[in-house]
Structure formats: structure tokens, C-alpha cells
């Protein structure tokens, strides 16, 4: 499930980035910000998808992605709520929706990471040799 959650985040981020860079829908954000964020999403999406293709994604990197997603999602919602940019009505809806989606990815990734860790530690119990006491 963890690999699926990472790949899903990667595909969604890549697609949002391409939309933002190529189509540049009018959302009320300065063009430079919009292009920069779009390019970031393209490269981020490729990286997260690639991590999801690994046999065992590095737990520390996954935790960084989860934290980053939570920060990105919260920032998106605050940006819309506090009018940090003069967003259009459609822009506000898009920014809040993608913020909520990114928080959803973080939750899905966290649940999957915990599940993978629990499954890994359960299988390790049966394969490790018993420890010996030196007493």
C-alpha cells in the first residue's frame, strides 16, 4: 500500500505541475509563482513516483514526504483563507482542493508506512536468532 500511495502522489503532483506549467489556468497567482510551483510539482512528482518503484522505500525519505505534504497542504489552505494572493474564485477552489488532496496523500502515506513497519517487525521476529545472555 505504501508504494501505491507514493506512486499516486507522484502521478497527481506531476499532472498538476504539467497543468500549471503548460495550461496556466487563471487562478490569480503571480505568473512567476505559478510557473515555479508547477515546475516544482513536475520534478517532485517524478521523484516521489520513482521512490514508489523501489522494493523498499527508505522510511526516512517517506517521513520527509509526509511532513512536506502536511506543510504544503496547510500552506495551501492558509494561502486561500488569508488571501496571501488575490486568487480568483476558481483559484481559491483549486488551491483549497489540492491542499486537501495533498493532506489526504500524507495521511494515506502515514497509514501505509505504519502498516509496512508493523508487518516488517512482525516478520523479523520469526527470522532473528534468539539473543543469548552472557550472565
Automatic annotation (TrEMBL):
Transmembrane spans: 35-52, 61-85, 91-113
Keywords assigned: Membrane, Transmembrane, Transmembrane helix
Protein's name according to its UniProt entry: Integral membrane protein
Amino acid at each position: 500500500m505504501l508504494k501505491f500511495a507514493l506512486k499516486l502522489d507522484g502521478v497527481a503532483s506531476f499532472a498538476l505541475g504539467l497543468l500549471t506549467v503548460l495550461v496556466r489556468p487563471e487562478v490569480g497567482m503571480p505568473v512567476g509563482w505559478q510557473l515555479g510551483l508547477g515546475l516544482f510539482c513536475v520534478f517532485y512528482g517524478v521523484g516521489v513516483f520513482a521512490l514508489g518503484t523501489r522494493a523498499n522505500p527508505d522510511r526516512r525519505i517517506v517521513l520527509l514526504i509526509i511532513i512536506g505534504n502536511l506543510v504544503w497542504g496547510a500552506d495551501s489552505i492558509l494561502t486561500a483563507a488569508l488571501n496571501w494572493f488575490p486568487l480568483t474564485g476558481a483559484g481559491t477552489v483549486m488551491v483549497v482542493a489540492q491542499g486537501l488532496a495533498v493532506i489526504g496523500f500524507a495521511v494515506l502515506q502515514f497509514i501505509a508506512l505504519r502498516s509496512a513497519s508493523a508487518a516488517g517487525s512482525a516478520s523479523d521476529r520469526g527470522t532473528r536468532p534468539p539473543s543469548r545472555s552472557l550472565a
